[in-house]
Specification:
Radius of gyration: 23 Å
Strand order of the largest sheet: 1-2-3-4
Mean pLDDT: 88
Number of strands: 7
Distance between the termini: 18 Å
Shape: elongated
Helix content: 40-55%
Length: 173
């Protein structure tokens, strides 16, 4: 099976957002960011208490910091998503995007071959670490941070057949 892949900046951004939400490193970064502000708030309240501040002021600060911590906890993923978008747009402005807009990907009997105007990547099915289908993409990870990004719109009616084929090849090799 051979397909022409056309990636956009948005496709690459979505891949990075997916990676940040589903990888160990990404989950760890999100969780650390989520607890950073509440821990800092607790430290500030401890300092106020140790310094002998009035209990009324400590209570007001505790309520405010708890409310902000609660909001922070739920908005961190959006903040990280915005940061990813900003960084990728900066990379694009610098002309250093790490993906190719147009590539040909071929699923051979023993390997996957992706060709573009600058390089050719060959990955054996045994080297596939993870297959991640989403609603709009198929991500085939061949290392902890590298994957084939395959938008379903590039596959046409072959979406389910390709997913079954790659899954079977990964299991049998």
């Amino acid at each position: 099976m051979k397909f022409m892949i056309h990636l956009t900046d948005e496709d690459y951004i979505r891949f990075n957002i997916f990676y940040s939400k589903h990888s160990k490193a990404g989950k760890r970064a999100v969780n650390l960011a989520r607890i950073a502000f509440p821990v800092l708030s607790l430290a500030v309240l401890t300092v106020f208490f140790s310094a002998g501040a009035e209990y009324g002021k400590i209570a007001v600060n505790a309520i405010l910091l708890t409310a902000v911590s609660f909001l922070w906890f739920f908005y961190v993923p959006k903040i990280i998503e915005k940061s990813i978008r900003k960084n990728i747009n900066k990379m694009k402005a610098d002309g250093k995007l790490p993906f190719h807009e147009h590539a040909q990907i071929e699923f051979q009997d023993d390997k996957i071959v992706e060709k573009n105007d600058q390089e050719e990547v060959r990955v054996k099915y045994t080297d596939i670490e993870q297959i991640c289908p989403t609603n709009e993409y198929l991500y085939i990870f061949y290392s902890a941070v590298q994957a084939f990004i395959i938008p379903y719109h590039c596959l046409g009616a072959d979406k389910e057949a390709l997913l079954a084929y790659v899954t079977q090849k990964k299991k049998t090799k």
